[in-house]
Amino acid sequence: MAAREPNKHPMPTQEPSVRAHNFDEVALGYTAEIAAEEAQRCLNCKNKPCVQGCPVNIDIPAFIAQIRNNNPEGAYDVISKTSSLPAVCGRVCPQENQCEHECTLSVKLGLEPVGIGRLERFVADNHRLNSKTVPVRPAPNGHKVAVIGSGPSGLTCAGDLAKLGYSVTVFEALHTAGGVLVYGIPEFRLPKSIVAAEVEELKALGVEIFTNVIIGKTLTIDELLEQGYEAVFIGSGAGLPNFMGIPGESLCGVYSANEFLTRSNLMKAYLNDSRTPIMKGGKVAVVGGGNVAMDAARTALRLGAEKVTIVYRRSLEELPARKEEVEHAQEEGIEFRLLCNPTEILGYKNPDDPRDPKNGFVKGMRCIKMELGEPDERGRRRPVEIPGSDFELETDTVIIAIGTSPNPLIKDTTQGLEVNRRGGIVIDENCMTSRNGIYAGGDAVTGAATVISAMGAGKAAAKAIHTALT
Fold first, then answer.
1. What are the Cα distances from residue 466, in Å, to 13, 155, 171, 469?
2. Which residues in 291-325 are b (16+ Cβ under 10 Å) and which e?
3. What burial letters (b/e) apply to 374-384, b meaning 16+ CB within 10 Å?
4. Which residues of the chain have pLDDT under 70?
5. pTM of model > 0.70
6. Which regions of 266-306 does DSSP assign to beta strands (E)?
7. So what's the pLDDT on residue 212?
8. CB-based contact 242:443 (threshold 8 Å)
9. In what order do the strands lie in the sheet with 254-256?
10. How far apart are CA 324 and CA 6, in angstroms?
11. pLDDT value for 1
């Protein structure tokens, strides 16, 4: 039977030797023929374990059934009932740890799971390219809600509320809507035109978006409440980069991954005629092992680096990045220095010429080798230094990609808003903060996490707001 084909259909991609030198999307997407064949693999399980693994509870068997019936627009209708960003999710969600992880083909039959994410991307792209339908704006229900941040949690919350007839206004600090989707994720993994199209769908539902508005500077949350907003959702993300606290982090040529990716993605430093300054060429070291580290490393390579090295303190098995992103990085020639940790960033200094333009720039990084010891509180084996194993890594640029924290601006300008020791906003089971009428979700609560988990938080907050206001 077609449903028992052992492997999911491979995703067509650019050749590694070609894509390593351009910013075009790496994955090319399923054709209609491939999508139909992959859809045949779904067993249409009655208990729908894949849905339980989806943070936004898309009816996965139902949309796949529509693909089998040669009705991709019907599949889009199923997905859009619960997801406001299907083209985004189909590209960047860690399906292997969520919906596909629960797939019966894999769990009970030992086969590869259905390519759910790839099918979702196919459906969303088909809708964007071929559909002429316009979203129907619901009748207004008379309630007014403000959303802070236009990242995945904010857009999801706004979309769900708009579909219920709410007047929703989104306030975005940057000049383009999309949050981490536009400043954090590179063009070759998530084209900005895709994000823009998803945003336009929400605007068609009546969502109003104001950019260049910094809540805590331009306006405060209390001022929003005074303007008649009955609820406020904080989806401001986690834009404050973490550093290691080692010597040399203030040298020229040291970036946080946030800054490096924002310069390239949002400020278009990757364009040949861009005037945005960014380090190009030379040897680049990226510290960290998550998706952001992979994005930074692969961006540096495309910007012309002669060699890119990822330095990570655990082994390949503990690497938190998506398997697909790690494989793509390896295929493109990025080196992995595993079980290593930086202890100092080394700077150039010419004692004979204080005006030497190289003075104050990175010239290398001192590292120490690690071994895995006992598990930590999360069950991951704790890396332990191996005494006397220090070595120097020659590099011209260092990118620190070890996580981010919520920006304290909103907390500092909103009296009575409780946060935890990591700066995350404290919420209850209904996404309510310590202030009545103020809700929060996504990275502003949890710290840096996945796009889909932020979307799930935005969906939960929208439901809670609707319950409270009606």
1. 42, 16, 20, 5
2. bbbbbbbbbbbbbebebbbbbbbbbeeebbbbebb
3. eeeeeeeeebe
4. 1-4
5. yes
6. 283-287
7. 97
8. no
9. 254-256, 397-400, 283-287, 307-312, 335-338
10. 19
11. 41
- Give the Cα separation of 324 and 105 in Å (integer): 20
What is the model's pLDDT at position 4?
Answer: 58
pLDDT (0 to 100) of residue 226: 97
| β-strand partners of 233 | 147, 439
Give the tokens for residue 40. Answer: 């045949």
What is the C-alpha to C-alpha distance for residues 339 and 314, in angstroms, rounded to an integer?
5
Of all helices (H) and strands (E), which one includes residue 409?
A: helix 409-413
For 78, 253, 449, the CA distances from 379, given in Å and listed in that order, are 38, 35, 18
Separation between Cα atoms, residue 453 and residue 462, nearest integer Å: 14
d(CA 280, CA 308): 11
The rounded Cα 342 to chain-centroid distance in angstroms is: 25
Which has the closest alpha carbon to 90: 194, 184, 239? 194
For the CA atoms of 451, 457, 460, 466, the dihedral, rounded to the nearest 10 degrees, stands at -100
Strands (E), 196-251: 208-210, 231-234, 240-241
Residue 247 — φ and ψ, nearest 5°? -60, 145
DSSP at 378: T
Q: Residue 402's closest CA among 242, 227, 295? A: 242
From the number of C-beta atoms within 10 Å of its C-beta (0-12, 13-18, 19+), residue 17 rates as: exposed
Beta pairing partners, 383: 372
pLDDT at position 149, please? 97
Task: Report d(CA 383, CA 375) in Å as an integer.
Answer: 9
Looking at residue 217, its amino acid is K
pLDDT score for 297 = 98
pLDDT for res 378:
80
Q: What are phi and psi of 303, to 5 degrees?
A: -80, -5
pLDDT score recorded for residue 3: 44
Residue-range domains of the chain with CATH: 2-130 (1.10.1060.10), 144-239+405-469 (3.50.50.60), 243-402 (3.50.50.60)
Which segments of 277-362 does DSSP mark as H helices, in order? 291-302, 323-331
- Other CB atoms within 10 A of residue 426 CB: 13
List phi, psi (to 5°) of 404.
-140, 165
Distances (CA, A) of 381 to 158, 172, 372, 376: 40, 39, 6, 6
CB 184 within 8 A of CB 404: no
